[in-house]
């Protein structure tokens, strides 16, 4: 395999990883947007049963966070793989994923916002 073919293969791999990042980041970002909205909602309650219901729902939400964190880590792992390939083979990345406007920093910032909003 000539050098050009090797470089072309690396770019194909990076392109596939960019696509995979975009496919995972978009739904995860939507979930975080929904979670932030839910966490910031104001509730008007008229009974202790409603309060208990909200507490139960919140506890159920918190129970989903470890799985969400696994998804975040998997998504960020894709980005790490892109950077690793680029560094290993001296490839200069543009810094822009052609498949999404979401950056790894966007995911990190939103995750931190969701995490710090929890009581």
From TrEMBL:
InterPro entries: Spectrin_repeat (IPR002017)
Superkingdom, taxonomy of origin: Eukaryota
One Pfam family hit: Spectrin
Protein name, as recorded: Uncharacterized protein
Organism per entry: Hucho hucho
